[in-house]
Amino acid sequence: MIGAGPSGLAASKVFASRNVPFDCFEAGSGIGGLWRYGNDNGMSGVYASLHTNISKESMSFTSRAMPATYPVFPHHSLVLAYLEDYAASFDLHRHIVCDTKVTSVRPVDDGGWEVVCRHRGTEAEETRRYSAVVVANGHHWDPRLPTPAVPGAEEFEGTAIHSHDYRTPDPYAGRRVLVIGMGNSACEIAAEISRTAARTFLSARNAAHVYPKMLLGRPADHLASSPLSDLPRFLKDPALRLLLRLSRGASAQYGLPEPVGGPLASHPSTSDELLVQLARGAVTPKPGVSSFGRDTAAFTDGSREAVDAVVYATGYTISFPFLDPAVFAAPEGRTELYLRTVPPRLPGLYFMGLAQPSGAAFPLLEPQAEWIAELIEGTVALPSPTDMTRAIAREWRRHRTTYVSTYRHGIEIDFRTYRRVLRRERRAGRRRVR
């Protein structure tokens, strides 16, 4: 098992409870993955003030709720404490080998997988043989910059970082800052920086629906389990659009263009702070960046602004540095995986948490790990590789008609649909072994 973040911990809990023998390798000195602030594995982009944009109820693992004493939207330190308590409660630390980086995973001709790992502080590598490998290295750690680069980016003389490296607004006090992107990180970072910056610009090529964290007195993510979620899509989309209009108002009130697609066509961006700062004029919305000068940025509407610093909140590349791309890769953010888990023609290789649900990912992880454990134990069986490949193709056809066509949405899924399909597949898998 590669990684001891939320996905690796959920898989470890399930495997340990089923007495499936395993080793879990973690490159950092502690568990928690991206939720460990300043993680020494270099993969955490958590900034100092970050709180979840998903409520504690929705974010909990299926087997263990977050403490009732937690606020509705916990600080990242509380999420880490929850993960540490989860690991301790199920005695997972005895299975986890920290400070150990997996450098290579390759299939062996006679079956199984060869795994090469290196312990921190030494160049010596250790090679082990496993019948199966569970990849749980996450998909929010490898910063992705605009490709091709924005013309003039190399000439820009101000500071430029990816949001992965952002920690506090202090370096931006009194400066003119451009935040590029309109996902959750872009919205929250722009709002935070704007409180002390001289000017803050938020640039997005495509407008997004910005959700308030609370709707009708409840966390917005609770909509995923409300009667609204049971409506057919052609009714759900306009109903959600109306709900946003009633609770938040029109995008134009905040200087934002109206998004082209419906609220369900893209991953939700959630931020109360941004809406307030837009209304105050502390954040100025701009369209996409067309070019940079030494101390300026030009935009696709022909405007130009003086800029001292740029924060690229442009998402992450899905990558697996320990896998040869000829074995498995995710070109353009697309993964050829049956139920986002199984590569059809690579027996014994499984992927955990490699999906972006419209709600929280944590509740999906243990059921996914249960399925993987059943496959390893042989209590369920997969469809044939040909049937899995056909199913993947069908899913991609549905995906293209459901979500906007961007790298970010390559692994987008609907929470309820995925959970339902996974339950159905586990039942079908049991019938296949009879």
TrEMBL record:
Residues spanning the signal sequence: none
Assigned keywords, A-Z: FAD, Flavoprotein, NADP, Oxidoreductase
UniProt-listed Pfam families: FMO-like (PF00743)
Domain of life, per lineage: Bacteria
SUPFAM superfamilies referenced in this protein's UniProt entry, alphabetically: FAD/NAD(P)-binding domain
Protein family (similarity comment): Belongs to the FMO family.
Protein name: NAD(P)-binding domain-containing protein
Annotated source species: Streptomyces macrolidinus
Classification of source organism: Bacteria, Bacillati, Actinomycetota, Actinomycetes, Kitasatosporales
